[in-house]
């Protein structure tokens, strides 16, 4: 609880605004929504087209924990977002997660999450999590299938209302992680994630690896089985 939510008509990027505030020492618990963005950013240096009607939300967190467990926040946000969106769909089970924190329907991208972190001038860490959800529009992305909540049969949704419901879901999941640890988040992620033993190809730091999905590590790394060995992929992109 206790989120402060700022709503802007238009911003270059909600995450850029929050990062600026974060490095100047802004406390956690601040969230920013824009009705549209003119310089929205995606993962892997891509841009994120941001026409009106969709959700563009960034939140500032100040987790006091080891850098090792910070990637858990992206997975937690994906679970919190899936819990918010799935009940709005005619077929809630069609909403799936792609590691680390993409939301898909029938293999098409519905929402993406961009996690960025650093430390401010006094050495305090910050985390800015940017969330983009295709509510009404599904802007084209070259070489990739995209969808929207409305294309999947949901009623029209107010971006601000979805933002508030996501923040409430985030609070519930953060409390659960605090009480029961990451295992609870991981179980919820796996329930919407790939089937065990599904073949995945990942582009990571050391090139491409293919293997069979063996779950998530305690830190949230992707576990891939390749010929008797299990690789833990900490960062990368699942290609298929
Ligand atoms: C992805 O590539 O999957 C992540 C997309 C993240 C987009 C959101 S929209 C709100 C926030 N502001 C940005 O500039 N990017 C994120």
From TrEMBL:
InterPro entries documented for this protein:
aa-tRNA-synth_II/BPL/LPL, Biotin_CoA_COase_ligase, BPL_C, BPL_LPL_catalytic
Enzyme type, top EC level: ligase
Instruction: State the UniProt keywords alphabetically.
Output: Biotin, Ligase
Q: Which reaction does it catalyse?
A: biotin + L-lysyl-[protein] + ATP = N(6)-biotinyl-L-lysyl-[protein] + AMP + diphosphate + H(+)
Q: Which Gene3D superfamilies does the UniProt record give? A: 2.30.30.100, Bira Bifunctional Protein, Domain 2
Q: What is its EC number?
A: 6.3.4.15
BPL/LPL catalytic domain segment(s): 1-178
Among the GO molecular function terms of this UniProt record, one is: biotin--[biotin carboxyl-carrier protein] ligase activity
Q: Name one Pfam family in it.
A: BPL_C
Q: What is this protein called?
A: biotin--[biotin carboxyl-carrier protein] ligase
Q: Which organism is it from?
A: Roseomonas elaeocarpi
């Amino acid at each position: 609880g206790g989120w402060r939510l700022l709503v802007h008509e238009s911003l270059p990027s909600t995450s850029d605004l929050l990062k600026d505030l974060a490095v100047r020492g802004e406390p956690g618990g601040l969230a920013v929504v824009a009705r549209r963005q003119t310089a929205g950013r995606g993962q892997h240096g891509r841009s994120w087209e941001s026409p009106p009607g969709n959700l563009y939300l960034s939140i500032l967190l100040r987790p006091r924990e080891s850098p090792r467990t910070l990637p858990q926040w992206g997975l937690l946000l994906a679970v919190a977002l899936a819990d918010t969106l799935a009940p709005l769909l005619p077929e809630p089970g069609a909403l799936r997660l792609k590691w680390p924190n993409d939301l898909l329907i029938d293999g098409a991208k519905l929402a993406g999450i961009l996690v960025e972190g650093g430390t401010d001038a006094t050495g305090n860490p910050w985390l800015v999590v940017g969330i983009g959800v295709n509510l009404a529009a599904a802007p084209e992305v070259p070489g990739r299938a995209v969808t929207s909540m409305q294309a999947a049969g949901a009623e029209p949704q107010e971006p601000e209302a979805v933002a508030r419901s996501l923040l409430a879901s985030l609070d519930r999941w953060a409390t659960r992680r605090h009480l029961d640890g990451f295992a609870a988040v991981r179980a919820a992620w796996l329930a919407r994630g790939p089937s065990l033993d599904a073949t995945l190809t990942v582009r990571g730091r050391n090139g491409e690896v293919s293997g069979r999905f063996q779950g998530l590590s305690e830190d949230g790394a992707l576990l891939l089985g390749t010929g008797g060995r299990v690789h833990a992929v900490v960062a990368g992109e699942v290609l298929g």
